[in-house]
Amino acid sequence: MPLHTHARGALAKLSHLVVQDIFLTETAMFADVVFPAAAWPEKTGTVSNTNRQVQMGQKAVEPPGIAKADWWITQQIALRMGLDWSYESPEDIYQEMQQAMPSLTHISWERLCNENSVTYPCANPNEAGQGIVFSDGFPTPDGRGKFVPANLLPPNDPLDKDFPFILTTGRQLEHWHTGAMTRRSEILNELEPEAFIQMSHADCLKLNIKAGDSVCVSSRRGQINIQVRIDNKVQNGLVFIPFAFVESAANILTSQELDPFGKIPEFKYSAVKIEPVTNAV
Description:
This protein is of the alpha/beta class and 281 residues long. Among the domains are: 37-119, no CATH class; 165-276, Barwin-like endoglucanases. Helices cover 19% and strands 20% of the residues. The strands form three sheets. Strands 7-9-8-11-6-10 form a six-stranded mixed sheet. Strand 3 and strand 4 (53-57) form a beta hairpin. The radius of gyration is 24 Å and the shape is globular.
């Protein structure tokens, strides 16, 4: 989320916040109530991905303590709100989903239990599913797909003498998103235990910075302290910070400007300055 400090402030002002999660995440630390949820191997249910695969996940181990499956927690809230919900299993919920989602036609719960995953759409219960869609045309009047040219817009956070570096952010191999799960893995956390900024060797020489030094990275919105890692795959003038580390949250620095069409924040381009911590103001 862009403008990280704004998000933290907004959560802190809520009169009541309920979080349902498998760990005490950064968001959960702001919560008045936390519902302990079961993790993926601790519950049965389906998940559908952007490859159009409906996948069955079977419970492998019991959830710890008082953790419960998400559907059970949600139903308990509904019952206490006076709703007449009577699901007894994930299968009941899936069957209701089939009534409302044409994409699940011919993909029964029993079939998923037997085949583990099925790709939709399916023309009949025995079909493997269509791996490729629109092979004979698109659902348009002439059957052709429509390409729409995009106009290149300049970044909203220009470089200048005060903020001369481009910051881009992203994931890393060892940690997923904010690291809520992966940083609890001893092996993964041992491989990547702390936040870092990747810079080119030439830029480090200009700033008299060495690998392992602590620097202050500042933007027009905030600043963080972080350790330097030299990587010559990073272009001169560009720096990279992964966003998995709450103690050096990259989104304190990023721009809150949104793409006018997709409404995606401008995470990949922020103007920053970099100073050795001893010289940072």
